[in-house]
Write a structure and sequence with these properties.
The chain is of the alpha+beta class and about 375 residues long. The chain contains 14 helices and twelve strands. The strands form three sheets. Strands 6, 7, 8, 9, 10, 11 and 12 form a seven-stranded antiparallel beta sheet that branches. The longest helix has 26 residues.
């Protein structure tokens, strides 16, 4: 997993633009950033789905930022629908490249991704004509794919946050991101400096090696020290989840992570016998329907079920676990339980070590949110 230098700068410029034009408040941004990190949904998509900005405003800002022509979701749906047969549905869905017409002899392709000169040249060769790239938001592309190909858009579950039409907050001051901040040391382990918002190539290589050399669950079991080191280099919520899975899978047949927010429990990642269960990410249920997990959230402490409710049994069957005992461990952000780790309660389970791992995961997620905040302003 590599750090996208250009996308990091783009997010910084987008956040700065929205704040400086008083379209967004600092409170709005903080709320969206937390969802951006926890749910793995793009920041712009979070802002639109949560009602903080409209897609029209986001498209205009992105167009101003990139210096390219731009389209709103409605225009993307209109023009893209008329030209959708030019490129195969597989390419449209996989590469997020949507044909939207011809302009001055060039074929216009709308996308929310950075297209390299080589990829653009390859596409021009394939289509036999010059291409002009058009800027659209990630939300607009997701909306198009949902309408045209029934691909459920990420972020559709994000709650709408009410806002006053007239902003009464003091406009957020744009923070200069070039200043250095102190390094973060937790339990004598140095975590990434929050001032390193634009990482250098050596740092990238170090993190890439860490997350590529040991995350093969069929062959490797992480030690607690290795897992903590991995968490200190995490660049995304998936890095955090992969590290937890890599460590806990050695002692538990079932490992499942849930995001808990606004009274709803959503599947994050699940493993059964060290095999990933991708369909688990679609899991969703009200927190109140899962009393064992709810108990962990309410008490903010690990919860061990000697017997299981029917709902918990159903929950365990989702990650293919036949066991009769469960263990829940909370993960925090600012003293709020935002995620829960579920394990089957086997005799091999070391609850003290897993509790410590969850504390480290909490630190990692908080730092990801702080780093995203630095990037966004």
């Amino acid at each position: 997993m590599t750090y996208d230098h250009n996308r990091g700068i783009q997010m910084a410029l987008l956040g700065e633009m929205l704040l400086s034009e008083k379209i967004l408040t600092s409170k709005d941004l903080d709320t969206a950033l937390e969802n951006h990190v926890l749910h793995g949904v793009k920041l712009g998509t979070c802002l639109v789905e949560m009602g903080f900005v409209t897609d029209d405003v986001l498209a205009r800002c992105l167009g101003k930022q990139t210096g390219k022509a731009f389209l709103s979701k409605d225009l993307l749906l209109e023009f893209g629908g008329q030209n959708v047969s030019v490129i195969s549905p597989t390419v449209i869905k996989k590469d997020r490249l949507i044909p939207v017409g011809i302009h001055e002899g060039a074929f216009r392709i709308a996308t929310d991704l950075d297209v390299s000169p080589q990829k653009q040249a390859d596409l021009e060769k394939f289509l036999g004509r010059k291409i002009e790239l058009v800027t659209v938001s990630g939300y607009a592309v997701d909306f198009f794919l949902e309408q045209m190909f029934a691909v459920q858009r990420p972020g559709r579950f994000l709650p709408k946050h009410s806002r006053l039409k007239t902003l009464v907050e003091t406009p957020a001051v744009v923070i200069q991101t070039k200043q250095k901040t102190a390094q973060v040391v937790i339990d004598e382990l140095e975590w990434k400096s929050l001032g390193d918002e634009i990482q250098n190539e050596e740092s990238d290589r170090e993190s890439d090696e860490i997350f590529s050399e040991t995350l093969n669950y069929d062959n490797v079991s992480l030690s607690l020290l290795d897992a903590v080191k991995h968490l200190s280099h995490a660049k995304s919520r998936d890095d955090v989840a992969d590290t937890i899975m890599g460590y806990v899978s050695k002692s538990s047949g079932t490992v499942a992570l849930f995001i808990v927010k606004d009274g709803v429990v959503r599947g994050w990642k699940a493993f059964s016998n060290r095999k990933n269960l991708p369909k688990f990410e679609a899991y969703s249920a009200p927190l109140e329907t899962l009393p064992d997990l709810e108990q962990c959230v309410i008490t903010k402490k690990p919860f061990f079920g000697n017997t299981m409710t029917e709902m918990t049994k159903m929950l365990l069957r989702t990650p293919n676990d036949p066991g009769a005992r469960s263990a829940f461990f909370p993960i925090f952000i600012q003293k709020r339980v935002i995620a829960v780790l579920l394990c089957d309660g086997s005799n091999k389970l070391n609850s003290d070590e897993i509790s410590k791992l969850c504390r480290k995961a909490s630190y990692a997620l908080e730092i990801l949110i702080l780093r995203s905040k630095i990037l966004s302003v």
